[in-house]
Design brief:
The protein is of the alpha+beta class. 64% of the residues lie in helices and 8% in strands. It contains ten helices and four strands. Strands 1-2-3-4 form a four-stranded antiparallel beta sheet. Helix 1 packs across helix 8, helix 2 packs across helix 3 and helix 2 crosses helix 7. The two termini are 13 Å apart. The model has no long low-confidence stretch (mean pLDDT 91).
């Protein structure tokens, strides 16, 4: 199979989800140590023309990451609860996701705006206002990553995040899909969602600067309405950067996003790499089988 398809995914509870061309595969380590795998075919919207259309694809990817990511997290959470014979409902997960999104909007969009407004009288230009707001947003984002990284359960997920990156890096380097070979690779990856979020934070400064400094309610509303625009531009930058890593200027531009991944990834152990390989190999197997038919 051609290796020009960009495999990727996310870490979940005691596992890894890999998004292939035809399916999303989630591999999870059960409490008894066994591996279990969940395979979900991708809807047409995630594989069709819109998914390949510049700018529009960034919005589709954002929706895809939300929907598939939540399903994978729900699956992994229920596997983790097998010994307790408990189960988390989809409704509960959606409530948690909505609350998390509300918190993210307040922390990264509304709070920086209000903090910057406190010193509005000391800021002479609209551009400087948005640069200050963007700097505050970035500081809050880094502080948030550092704080959540102190939680043992989150650190555990971060190790699976590192395993996912190592497996994908090894595959893209045409290395054997074996633990020993994969372990040699970096836990950072240029297409990581952490790098995407950093690009979004920078792009937001420029996009919000176009709004200027109107009355407060318009500024708040713009933070909501422009999220799809910022996400679309952020995806295009990451997509372009991943395809031009040989360019020195591109590598410099990608460096901050790669550095931020030191906060969201950890070195995995062999059993965690095994889980990531299980998900990736299954996704590749499904794609190869589809191509052969």
């Amino acid at each position: 199979m051609a290796r020009d398809f960009s495999y990727g995914g996310q870490a979940v509870i005691e596992g890894v989800m890999i998004r292939g061309q035809k399916a999303a595969v989630t591999a999870v380590r059960r409490p008894d140590g066994d591996l279990t795998t969940d395979v979900r075919s991708l809807a047409a919207i995630y594989t069709g023309r819109m998914r390949r259309t510049p700018l529009l694809r960034g919005i589709i990817v954002l929706i895809e990451a939300m929907v598939i990511g939540i399903r994978s997290l729900l699956y992994s959470a229920n596997v983790a609860l097998e010994e307790e014979k408990e189960e988390i409902s989809g409704k509960t997960v959606w409530v948690m996701i909505i609350l998390s999104l509300a918190l993210a909007i307040v922390l990264f969009l509304i709070l920086p705006l209000f903090l910057t407004r406190l010193i509005n009288s000391y800021i002479g230009s609209s551009l400087v206002f948005h640069l200050v707001e963007g700097f505050i947003r970035l500081v809050i984002f880094v502080a948030y990553l550092k704080l959540v990284g102190l939680m043992p359960d989150i650190r555990r997920i971060f190790t699976y995040h590192g395993a996912e990156h190592q497996a994908v890096n090894a595959y893209e380097s045409s290395m054997p899909m074996e633990v020993a070979a994969v372990r040699k690779f970096s836990t950072a990856h240029v297409r990581c969602g952490t790098g995407f979020l950093f690009a979004v934070l920078i792009i937001a400064i420029m996009v919000f600067a176009l709004v200027g400094r109107p009355v407060l309610w318009i500024m708040v509303l713009s933070r909501f309405l422009l999220i799809p625009v910022i996400a679309a531009l952020g995806y295009e930058i990451i997509h372009f950067g991943a395809r031009h890593t040989g360019n020195i200027l591109v590598r410099i531009a990608l460096a901050p996003g790669l550095w931020l991944q030191t906060l969201t990834t950890r070195e995995p152990d062999d059993s965690q790499i095994e889980v990531a390989l299980s998900a990736l190999n299954k996704a590749i197997e499904i794609d190869q089988r589809e191509e052969a038919t």
